[in-house]
Amino acid sequence: MSWTDVFPVLTDEMIEDFEASATKCDLAELFRIKRVIPSIDASKKISCKMIAATSLYAVQHLQPIVEGAGQLQVLRPEISFRIYLAADLEDMIDPLLAVGCDVFLMEDLSTSENFQDMWRFLALSEKDVWVTITDAQRARSIFYDVERTELIQKTGHGLWRAPYVLSHGEIDSPGVYRPIMSCQFGAKGGINIENLIRAHIWNTARGTLRSRCTIAGKEAVDIEGCQINQKGFGEWFLLSAFYPRIAADGVMTFRSWDDNHCNAWYALDIEYVTWANPQSEIFYYGSSKFLESPPKVNPPKVKPRPKPKSIHAVRLITEAKSIREIYPPAKSKERVTLCVARYEEDIDWLLQLEDDINIVLYNKGSEIKNKALLKRINSLIPLKNQGREADTYLRHIRDYKHRGDCEWTVFCQGEPFSHSPDFLDLIKLREHWREVQSLTACYMDARDIPPSIIIKSDLSEYIKGKRCRTEFCTIRTMEPMHYFDHGNRNFMMDFCNHHNLPDGWSIGGYFLEKCGLDDLAKQAWDATLMQFSFGAMFAVRNNRLGRLGRTSLNKMIRLACGHHSAGFVYERMWLHFFGQPFIKVERSYLD
User: Fold this and answer.
1) Domain limits for position 340
2) How far is 511 from 530, CA to CA, in rounded Å?
């Protein structure tokens, strides 16, 4: 029994039938590009040999893609992040261009047939280019997926992938096994991918490509997601059309050593790829405990097929040095400086922090006498009680000698838990942080701000199940998008009255001008929405702290120490000071 005995394959004969029988227009409109809008920094990518690609066909997918693209632009500006955008979402072009994306505007709409997920595969048609495929859920981690693509570029493999089993259905059934996750793989371009996709859809619709797995002596098994308009159709294409053709180029399979979710068909899959190309490998990764005592790898219990004498089916990397060099988990060890703005709060919780966290505490309240705390605090700096936490943070940015650019600074209040019940756990999960990371979930549970129904339903920014999220608000009035906040409205009215702002004036644009941040102010005046972290608690990569020059910092400190309302505007602004993009929403019209 071999892979191709069990799983359907789109054969060359089926493709020839499509090319001979179908018209040139068949299905072409589903993948036709209307126009290409290069990013503002396109000149940096003229000789680009690496592309990251995804589809965008839903408004709710914009933000994670913008954040992932912004991170990639900072860390690897030479890499093109290509977005295949639905024709009816042109309003999203500007925020995508602002973070360095190249936009490929499609002729098809977001509301048409269920093939939008497959648009991103079109990037695989580019010759002499390496392509990393992602989606909105993984966009924030695109930098690490690009690193995997760069790894196979060096090792000579044509594809990296992460096989998995669908979480529903019979887990041991071949119908739920997927050799390639459609949002997490990388491959070398130069494939006639559009023709392959259209031939696959055409044969699926006609029924010439079987949609069931066949096992000798047993009843055929349905493959989930293989019908037109079914969720998962893109992975059906990868399984039956793409995978059999690229396996011969060599496959690097990434799998966690403690992953127990791949069913028995994983063994058949490995037998297939190592037969197709003897250089195919499995890259097991995991914790240091695994490296000290790796599990035994048993050979697949399947009938062997003839293989070249030089075959090596599995390479299990067990030397810590090799793993760290090729795929380093170093981010978990990056150091953190914790800037704490304290008044009279109980700060005993600082004793629970890991020893490698550098604690800088600014005390605006009574003297701290606890000897254990004094020993644990690395720097204790008294300040005059003025300007709320904004004054504290700004003085820290201006006066403290920051550590390495790749390390983190966390800004928090003396009592973080009313805003962030999972604060201590979030600090330990910094390998999952974005370059500018919210570390709060709410204003206060007791006041139901935001309403608990929002926190329970919006899990998109949670980290490993730990609560953290940003809130959207309008940039002109600072009003939250999803609920009424009467207290915030009063503070913003106080700010407008104190500064004599006319009705309709942009609080965000005006405030940034007062800070001396004219370029950022121009962006704010032209934008619609912004994001903030409740309680002004967040983390930022140290290389972004320099975005606030000393002249601006002096102005910002004076502003913070002026009228009390300024502190509440600062709370809305912190993430944007360090690179979080504003969002512009265009009006739409019905022709």
Assistant:
1) 330-577
2) 14
Residue 446: what pLDDT? 58
Residues 177 and 307 in one domain: yes
Q: Are residues 416 and 270 in the same domain?
A: no
Domain presence at residue 35: yes
Regarding whether 12 and 115 lie in a shared domain, the answer is yes
- The more confidently predicted of residues 382 and 287 is 382
Residue 573 corresponds to which tokens in the numbers above?
Answer: 């602004």
Residues 6+ apart with CB under 8 A from 293: none
Distance CA(387)–CA(562), nearest Å, equals 7
Peptide bond into 299 cis (omega under 30): no
Per-residue pLDDT of 338-373, as tens digits, reads 999 999 999 999 999 998 899 999 999 999 999 999
How far is it, in rounded angstroms, from Cα 115 to Cα 42? Answer: 28
Residue 186 has pLDDT above 90, yes or no: yes
Same domain, 489 and 340: yes
CA distances from 87 to 6, 77, 113, 577 (A): 39, 27, 14, 32
Give tens-digit pLDDT for 61-94. 898 899 888 888 888 888 999 999 999 999 899 8
Q: Which residue has the higher pLDDT, 145 or 451?
A: 145
- 3-class secondary structure, 407: coil
Contact 480, 532 (CB under 8 A): no
Instruction: Give the DSSP letter string of 466-508.
Output: B----EEEETTT--BSSS--HHHHHHHHHHHHHTTPPTT--HH
